[in-house]
Specification:
Layout lengths: L1 H17 L3 H10 L12 H5 L10 H17 L32 H7 L1 H9 L2 H11 L20 H15 L3 H20 L4 H23 L9 H6 L5 H4 L2 H22 L4 H10 L2 H13 L4 H8 L22 H9 L4 H26 L5 H6 L12 E4 L4 E5 L8 E5 L8 H8 L4
Antiparallel strand pairs: 1-2, 2-3
Helix pairs in contact: 2-15, 5-8, 6-8, 7-8, 8-9, 8-10, 9-10, 10-18, 13-15, 15-17
Protein name: DUF4274 domain-containing protein
Length: 441
């Protein structure tokens, strides 16, 4: 027992004195880097005040005031729950969302074909929310300026349903080019939000809303006649997957800020405890090393190697990391070691969902390619698609009977398969008309 005590003491002292390794210090630098885009318009204020009466030119100032108000409440020791924007709501009537397109489900165009006048009435009743579709199209990234300890989410809510329904109605009214342009601008904006965000949740919101725009785009393409042109905005929105689409450094750095903010709170609270509790905390928790472990964990999802893995359609981690509890250095900060390990497995799910969205974008780009490359059976044309439209590890194919392209999702708990209707590009458009009347399930 004495020998064991001496051994543990020696290990504890050695690792406490050593501190973080060079690799861990490099990971800290990666997580503490400022990833905020230096150019462009932040969509967060617009989405934060989406349902509130704030003029566009005042969004940035009002957002800064809200962030400062939350900062003040935290400093004053007040509990901040679901903080609401400090602004009056829009003077627009409630929305019956059941009559509108869903945010990420297929069948939007068929729904509007069935009830065009009802949709038209709803859209006319919400001019302010409708106008914000164009403002959103001109934003460039999604950056949450709130303190990391405060979980605040900005999203369009029912406004996205209004926008998708408006695009579908535009198509039903015969303006195919205008409807496709609006839909693809919306998709392009959500793709930018997914690329440029410091929020894991924000990235998933962007991917989910982007899926809705992809579904509508597919319905529209299926209804086009042979030779009918597709706007350049659609080509831009579905351009080949690039490093920015799968780079999660900014998201992980945002998560790191949130985690280390909690550690600072723990350390500050410990300083107010009786001496014996402080002594126990000193033995079991060391803030500097714990931050290094968290950074090491998060940085494994970030950097050139991680992006290369993601571009190859595989998780940013080539192999599962060894739990900290299995390392002798864990003795130097046992509580910190446990805290660093708790959330580690969950972040792999975000890799999967990021890769799924990339696969969905490739499938949308495949529809555009098929439209521009007629001739031969659908299966033959699908097999001829360029390498840039293929996902290395996602299973994909054609369901000829149902007239669908599909790709299997890695994150199958939410949706096992992502499906898009495809037109045979027949001269008379008969098959497309049948699909509009009977949307795929």
């Amino acid at each position: 027992m004495l020998a064991l005590f001496v051994l543990v003491t020696v290990i504890f002292t050695a690792y406490r004195q050593r501190g973080p390794t060079q690799e861990q210090r490099d990971a800290l630098a990666l997580m503490q880097k400022d990833y905020r885009p230096t150019r462009g318009v932040n969509a967060f204020p617009l989405l934060w005040f989406m349902r509130y009466d704030v003029p566009e030119e005042q969004l940035a100032a009002r957002m800064a005031a809200d962030v400062e108000a939350v900062r003040y409440k935290l400093a004053a020791g007040e509990i901040v729950g679901n903080h609401e924007p400090d602004a009056p709501p829009l003077a627009e009537p409630p929305i019956d969302a059941t009559a509108l397109c869903e945010i990420r489900a297929p069948g939007c165009l068929a729904k509007v074909v069935t009830h065009p006048e009802g949709v038209r009435t709803i859209l006319a009743s919400h001019p302010a929310l409708m106008a914000r579709a164009q403002a959103f199209d001109h934003t460039d990234f999604y950056w949450n300026e709130f303190l990391p300890r405060v979980v605040q989410i900005a999203h369009p809510g029912v406004a996205q349903q209004l926008w998708l329904s408006a695009f579908a109605l535009q198509y039903v009214d015969g303006d195919h080019a205008g409807a496709l342009t609006s839909t693809c601008r919306n998709l392009g904006a959500w793709r930018r939000m997914q690329q440029g965000t410091n929020s894991l949740i924000g990235a998933m919101i962007a991917a989910s809303h982007g899926d809705g725009a992809i579904h509508l785009l597919a319905d529209m393409l299926a209804g086009l006649r042979a030779g009918e042109a597709v706007p350049a905005e659609c080509v831009s929105a579905a351009q080949p997957i690039a490093a920015a689409d799968v780079d999660r450094c900014a998201q992980m750095a945002g998560e790191f800020r949130a985690q280390t903010s909690i550690l600072r709170d723990v350390a500050a609270q410990s300083a107010q405890r009786p001496w014996w509790e402080r002594a126990i905390n000193w033995l079991s928790f060391e803030e500097r090393q714990t931050k290094a472990w968290i950074a090491e964990n998060f940085a494994s999802y970030c950097g050139e190697a991680a992006v290369a893995h993601m571009l190859a359609d595989q998780s940013s981690r080539s192999a599962p990391s060894r739990p900290l509890m299995h390392r002798p250095e864990c003795v130097s900060s046992l509580i910190g070691c446990i805290l660093s390990d708790i959330a580690a497995p969950a972040y792999a799910d975000y890799d999967q969902r990021t890769l799924d969205f990339a696969a969905h974008l490739r499938l949308a780009a495949t529809l555009l390619w098929l439209h521009d490359n007629p001739g031969g059976t659908l299966s033959e044309r699908f097999e001829r698609r360029p390498a840039s439209l293929r996902s290395a590890r996602h299973a994909s194919g054609v369901d000829v009977t149902r007239g669908l392209l599909y790709v299997d999702n890695f994150h199958a708990q939410r949706e096992a398969r992502f499906e898009l209707p495809v037109s045979s590009v027949s001269a008379d458009g008969t098959l497309a008309a049948q699909r509009l009347a009977q949307p795929h399930p």
